[in-house]
Design goal:
This is Protein YIPF. With 202 residues, this protein is an all-alpha fold. It is 65% helix and 0% strand. The radius of gyration is 20 Å and the shape is globular.
Length: 202
């Protein structure tokens, strides 16, 4: 009788980045392994936003965990203060704002799915979340003029980085003749979040 070689399930030593198109089942995978793998993938997508390139992994392996985390983080950072927005207000602007921009993209003939667009717009809020954290530290400065200048520079860099990263991922998914009509709401969305960051991250 022949010896049956040991079988290995897809969940053991499986690297999704090595074969992104492969299907695999996590039903037999330990819960901690699933959480650790998902966290690793989310971290890799954060890294791609901070260092944008033409890799389409963010579109191919979309998820909503990263955008949800960033929306919650921004809401916590920008809530409160004198005349500041509430948690739900910031969360609604960031999350539902990306949904509205996505709907505009689809109505104008965008070739990516709704969830792919929300994923990209959400992940690309990361530079603005980093800017909000930076503005929190600047708030300890004693000089108001210096504090405002530094906050303005930090927020402007985050704003530009968010647009640059999102355009890199969304390139090629927009109709050529309607590209400006699609890009304008994206820029407006990140501008509103940048304004909130500049005004209330203190």
């Amino acid at each position: 009788a022949g010896v049956t070689p040991p079988t290995r399930t897809r969940s053991q030593n499986f690297d999704p980045s090595a074969d992104p198109d492969a299907e695999f089942d996590t039903l037999d995978e330990p819960v901690w392994d699933t959480i650790r793998r998902d966290l690793r993938l989310v971290g890799a997508k954060f890294a791609r936003v901070l260092k944008p390139d033409q890799n389409k992994q963010l579109l191919r392996d979309w998820d909503l965990w990263g955008p949800l985390f960033i929306c919650v983080l921004l809401s916590l950072l920008l809530q409160g203060g004198v005349g500041g927005p509430h948690f739900t207000e910031v969360f609604s602007i960031t999350f539902f704002g990306s949904c509205i921009v996505t709907a505009n993209t689809k109505l104008l003939g965008g070739t990516i799915s709704i969830f792919q667009s929300i994923c990209v717009l959400g992940y690309c809020l990361l530079p603005l979340a980093v800017a909000a954290i930076g503005c929190k530290f600047v708030a300890f400065s004693s000089s108001p003029s210096i504090k405002l200048t530094i906050k303005l520079v930090i927020t402007a860099v985050g704003f530009g980085w968010a647009i640059f990263a999102s355009m890199g991922f969304l390139a090629g998914s927009q109709p050529e003749k309607r590209r400006l009509l699609i890009i304008y709401p994206v820029v407006l969305f990140y501008f509103v979040v940048s304004w909130l960051t500049l005004s209330y991250a203190s």
